[in-house]
Amino acid sequence: MTQPTAKDTPELISLGASTLVSNAARLGISWKLRLGTVTESNSVNRLTVRMDSDTDTISAVSMVGSVPVGFRVYVITTPPSGNFVVGVVSRLYPDQRIATAVRTTNSAGFTTTETVTDTVVADLISQLVYRVRCFTLYTSTVANDSDIVRIREDSLTGTVLQASRVFIPIVTSFCVILEAEYTAVATGSKTFVVTGSRGSGTGTITHGANATAPVYLYVDYIRSS
């Protein structure tokens, strides 16, 4: 069977679901339709799926042919028969961009007080692994300062996912690329921030940016956990 396209999906869901629901209703069996992500594709029609908001995976029989890992699918559960994939919603590819924040002006200056300079919000799926990556410029008003750059989840007080102390030998702009992996614990919106604080020295530090040299903060999908 060929891989279903987006426009085919409603018909596939309709045909597969209607057959299963009809059989279940005739037998007096309850059923439910849920969204999940394929974590293993064992054969043409045998899949392992992690349902949204669940930590455990389930086995499912595909009614729409082979579905690769990373695809988002509709699953009907009809006890005691089992789980059936009846439609494909979309696919997540490794390194697929989920969210981007771009800054084109300098951040506020800071010294020893940790300060948020960049924020990105991404829609994540529980138990999938994502890369949070920042590219930022930094400078100080005096030479020989250092800047502690951090990626945190949620806010200024959130868990530190990655950190690096970067040296500022002269009064000019340098760049740092920092990245961290994050395994989503829930399906929904998630915030990540980049912060800076002066680690040593006496100057005021800025995370710089302008229209021709913007700063980026990305969230990319990597893999299933």
Give a structural overview.
The chain is 8% helix and 55% strand. It has two domains: 6-91, OB fold (Dihydrolipoamide Acetyltransferase, E2P); 97-224, Sandwich (Jelly Rolls), CATH 2.60.120. The chain starts with 8 loop residues before the first helix and ends with a strand. The strands form three sheets. Strands 1-2-3-5-4 form a five-stranded mixed barrel. Strands 6, 8, 11, 13 and 14 form a five-stranded antiparallel beta sheet that branches. A four-stranded antiparallel beta sheet has the order 7-12-9-10, with no helix packed on it. It has one helix at 9-27, and strands at 32-41, 46-51, 57-62, 71-78, 82-91, 97-103, 115-124, 128-140, 145-153, 160-168, 174-183, 188-200, 205-206, 215-224. A hairpin with a 4-residue loop joins strand 1 (32-41) and strand 2. The model is unreliable at 1-12 (pLDDT under 50). With 225 residues, the chain is mainly beta. The protein contains one helix and 14 strands.
Secondary structure topology:
Elements: H1 9-27, E1 32-41, E2 46-51, E3 57-62, E4 71-78, E5 82-91, E6 97-103, E7 115-124, E8 128-140, E9 145-153, E10 160-168, E11 174-183, E12 188-200, E13 205-206, E14 215-224
Parallel strand pairs: 3-5
Antiparallel strand pairs: 1-2, 1-4, 2-3, 4-5, 6-14, 7-12, 8-11, 8-13, 8-14, 9-10, 9-12
Order of helices and strands: HEEEEEEEEEEEEEE
Please list the strands of the largest sheet in the order they lie side by side. Answer: 1-2-3-5-4
The structural class is: mainly beta
Helix content: under 10%
Mind telling me the CATH class of the largest domain? Answer: Mainly Beta
Biggest sheet layout: 5 strands, mixed, barrel
Query: Could you give the distance between the termini?
Result: 29 Å
Number of helices: 1
What name does CATH use for the topology of the largest domain? Jelly Rolls
Number of domains: 2
Mean pLDDT: 85
